[in-house]
Amino acid sequence: MKDLSDWMETMPLVAILRGVRPEEVVAIGEALVAEGLGMIEVPLNSPRPFDSIAALAKACGGDALVGAGTVLDPADVDRVAEAGGRLIVTPNAGEAVVKRAKALNLYAMPGFATPTEGLAMVAAGADAVKLFPAEANPPPVVKAMRAVFPPDLPVLAVGSITPEKIEGYWAAGARGFGLGGSLYKPGDDAPTVAGRVAGFRAAVEKARRVAA
Predict the structure, then answer these.
(1) Which of 24, 35, 95, 130 is catalytic?
(2) 185-198: pLDDT as tens digits
(3) 130 is annotated as an active-site residue
(4) Residue 105, class by beta-carbon neighbours within 10 Å (0-12 exposed, 13-18 middle, 19+ buried)?
(5) Per the CB 3.0–4.6 Å rule, which of 80, 90, 193, 206 could disulfide with 85?
(6) Whether the predicted model's global pTM rises above the 0.90 cut
(7) Which of 35, 41, 95, 117 is catalytic?
(8) Is 206 a catalytic residue?
């Protein structure tokens, strides 16, 4: 199994398909993978999320890291694993969820909003941490917190991320991004979603060049 760092290096973008339905998720997932986006989460407050995760894992699991977002209950970590998901994302500093994910050999990407929460998630075993909501934490905040985190800890910015915001967060030390409504809204079809990837991909490539 690839390390999370391998997925992040290929394309450090996580598609957040909040509200997606099982009957449409495979077409959207395949379109995202075709555009080079290989990390996909189905938030658990979506319709029949475990069915969507199972369908995605079956169709795209060899080419994508599929998992769940908005995971609040450790018991749901088991259900995600049973469905074939390998990535567990929380909106909060959910220590019990992180520990259950690691016990099942899944990737854990918990949320945080303060250095205290971020470091607590590192201690719990997080593979990466998700700064949420990013709109309340601009790049200077990321830079300050990045200084006290382990240097190899991936920090992702999530919340109202657009291509225009990526370079600033990258320069501050973020190394990944969760893409929600700017990438997918309920009702969007696969070609519409796929068509939005190029702008984010170009923004990442530019941020990497500038930082090099």
Answers:
(1) 130
(2) 999 999 999 999 99
(3) yes
(4) exposed
(5) 80
(6) yes
(7) 41
(8) no
